[in-house]
Structures are given as C-alpha cells and as structure tokens.
Design goal:
The complex is a heterodimer.
Chain A (H helix, E strand, L loop, with lengths): L2 E5 L2 E5 L4 E8 L5 E7 L6 E7 L4 E4 L2 E6 L4 E6 L8 E8 L8 E3 L3 E6 L1
Parallel strand pairs in A: 2-11
Antiparallel strand pairs in A: 1-3, 3-8, 4-5, 4-9, 6-7, 7-8, 9-10, 9-11
Chain B lengths: L4 E3 L2 E4 L5 E6 L6 E7 L5 E8 L2 E4 L8 E4 L6 E5 L8 E8 L9 E2 L3 E5 L1
Chain lengths: 114, 115
C-alpha cells in the first residue's frame, strides 16, 4: 500500500531560526514528489515539485531535497518568518492518469514564535 | 481571477438537509478533483472528474454523495441528507492535465458544518 509519512507532526521554532521537515514514502512506481504549504483556513499552495532526477530544488527560503534511493525528502526553511506558520504537506505521485495516484501525507504543523 | 474558486466558503446545514458545493476550475483546466479534510487530518481524495465525465470516484462514499462537472458551469459536489460526520473542509483542485503528472491548483475550500 502506498504511504507517505511526515515528521515531526508539529514543530515550534523561534522566528529567524532554520528548520527541516521530513517526508518518507513507500510509493511505487514513483513519478514526482511535491511539497505544499497550507495556511490555516486556506487551500494548499504548491512550493516545489521534484521528479526522480532532481536532488534539490529551491523556492526562495524553501529548499526541498529528494533521495529516491532511500525514498526520503526534506523541506528546509531558512531564516523563518512568522508567515511561515502553516501546515506543510508532502505528496507523492505514482504516475498514471487517475487522482488515486497521489498519496498525501498528514502534514507537519509548523508554528513560528516571535 | 486566475485561481480556483469555491463557493460558498462556509456552509451550515441541519442534519438531513442537502449541501451543494461549487467549484470553478482555473481557466483552461478540464480536470477537477475533490478532497475532504477533517480537523487534524490530511487531505483525502474523493473524486476526479473531467468535463462531463467521472474518471475516478473511488474515494467518495457510495451513498448520499455525488459529483458532476457539466459541459458548462462549475463542478458540483452534492451531499444529500447530511449527518454530523460530514462536517469538514472540502477542497477542490484543478489541473491542465492529469494531476499525477502535472501541477494541481487548490481552491480556498468550503467549510461545511452540520448542526
């Protein structure tokens, strides 16, 4: 069964600090991996989408890494800001044409404190 | 407005009533997906539609739930005879091509409360 596990479940850090969120998956076959940011009461917004051949991808202060051998991904946030407080969702695609090819993690709830 | 639109944003229904949730995809997108999110839970896939066709409804309960995406107009998720357990946030997403290969864009969600 395809699964995506995220850790930690929640995280509190001080403004200005860095943090790293983890995503482990058992999805086969693998097509791509995505990270989304979901603000409270809003829909998810895409941060990055990475294919098998990509190891690192950055979007501003967000840097995602992918190790397809160990089936692990991380999302690193640099110099955190209060606006980074949100849930971060890892989604892995098994390819194919149906939406059931997407497996969603439960997310990491990040709180940035001033 | 280039984004995915959902309405209403908040919907309150009494047990036994019907709920209709609407989703207008991004311009040019013909693939629409509906997800349900319970508090403190991840997004759960419900149904995938293309114009006038249901492609995959494996995540949608067989009873009381239905979805459509007509040739003209928004996609509709319909919940008949709502129960308290239907209270959740319902998100719609759209994509240009099948979402497993292409980017999905999410709407702001409809928060359904059943009293």
């Amino acid at each position: 069964k395809n699964q995506v596990e995220q850790s930690p479940q929640s995280l509190i850090i001080l403004e200005g600090k860095n943090c790293t969120l983890q995503c482990n998956y058992t999805v086969s076959p693998f097509s791509n991996l995505r990270w989304y940011k979901q603000d409270t009461g809003r829909g998810p917004v895409s941060l990055t989408i990475m294919t098998f051949s990509e190891n690192t991808k950055s979007n501003g202060r967000y840097t995602a890494t992918l190790d397809a051998d160990t089936k692990q991904s991380s999302l690193h946030i640099t110099a955190s800001q209060l606006s980074d407080s949100a849930s971060y969702i890892c989604v892995v695609s098994a390819g194919g044409g149906g939406a059931d090819g997407l497996t969603f993690g439960k997310g990491t709830h990040l709180i940035i404190q001033p | 407005n280039a984004g995915v639109m959902q309405n209403p944003r908040h919907l309150v229904r009494r047990r036994g009533q019907e709920a209709r949730l609407r989703c207008s995809p991004m311009k040019g997108h013909s693939h629409v997906y509906w997800y349900r999110q319970l508090p403190e839970e991840g997004l759960k896939f419900m149904v995938y539609l293309q114009k006038e066709n249901i492609i995959d409804e494996s995540g949608m309960p067989k009873e009381r739930f239905s979805a459509e995406f007509p040739k003209e107009g928004p996609s509709i998720l319909r919940i008949q005879q709502v129960v308290r357990g239907d209270s959740a946030a319902y998100f719609c997403a759209s994509s240009l091509q099948p979402s497993t290969l292409y980017e999905q864009y999410f709407g702001p969600g409809t928060r359904l409360t059943v009293t």
